[in-house]
Fold these 3 entries.
Entry 1:
Amino acid sequence: MKCDCVKLNLDTQNHEDRVYVIAEAAPDCACESQLVSLHSPHSVRAEETLGRMVCTPMHVHSKRKELKPSFFEHAFSYGLSVQRLELAAHDELASLVVGFLEPKEDRTWLGYVECSCEHLRNLRDESSGMRMFCVYDSGEENNPAHTEIGVSRRIPEADQNEYRRELMRVFGEGVIKNREKLHDGSVLALMPQELQSRPRPKQWLE
């Protein structure tokens, strides 16, 4: 019987085992070929670019210019939030970043990492040959470009490090693109000046 992916999406909102519930109800990434959210214009296509915003200190090492391993943690629980960069409007991305920064004064937007949806979907588990990750549209009313990445099946906790390494690799080896590059600086320009000018740690200015 065909899975009702829209209902599945709604029923698992904020569920800490969301990706596993979806994987078991719709195995083999079945919901990729259907709309998961009625706020999405269409399911995520292979040629799309996926981006994830990076902020300090929540996402990066305190002393080194690198992402924390936990940056990809939600791919094993709630679903890893990313943005469809060709689809996302400038103001929607700006609102997203502002939402990250406003709760705490020490938060600063550094930039973003990106990957090809096709490359992500092509990742395979070496031992089983199965897909590692699914990519679902999960558009929101004020952010139709919102998308989620989740593991394609329940995996042992011991295997999660391998999966994280593959995510890091496909997201450009964790190389963070400067915020000025996102939509040619249009996103940064739409942010309040106070948030734009928040100081960045020394290592990110070198």
Entry 2:
Amino acid sequence: METEKKYKYIIIDTTTDEVILKKSVRDISDFINIIYPGNKISHNTVSIQLRNNTYFYHCELLIKELKW
């Protein structure tokens, strides 16, 4: 398996243009909950949002599923 393909999701901070790659929806929810402790999100919510669309916004973050 190629190293790049193990990353399935990208998070872009729209205010700073910082990019973070994550491997799972749980990693995404953990990251968001650290950055925004007052606006928490569960990994189930992340999964549902990505199932409905290939991307969604949470606060200033754009979360997108990568298609390799």
Entry 3:
Amino acid sequence: MAYSNPDRRSYVFPAVDFGAGNTSHSFQGPKGKAGRLVAIHLSASETFTNTTTQGQILVGTGADTDAYALMNLGTTAATDSVSSDDGVTDTDAILSADIPADTQVEVTCVAPTGGTPAGIGTVTVLVDWAH
């Protein structure tokens, strides 16, 4: 499979309320095409707390929720954004970029804990699908 001219797709989950508890989302690529996880982005509209544990975005499968990525969100301020490829936030967030063909990808948004959990943001997952 070639990634020299990939079919790049953005999977967007708007206004995820991390403070309200864990949420699960999913997507599947084009039939028969393997994928490569490129990046995960969060654009915050409410400040994320980090009293006991920080919020996280996991990208994986039903059997292994962080098979592809685990991105820590820290105390991201309202109107700030963070990305797995910004060289600052969580530079080792992508654990295994290769997504097999015909795999349902699970995106789990994990709530921060302690104090009064808070954080709302739009989550975007970028994937290149091979031709």
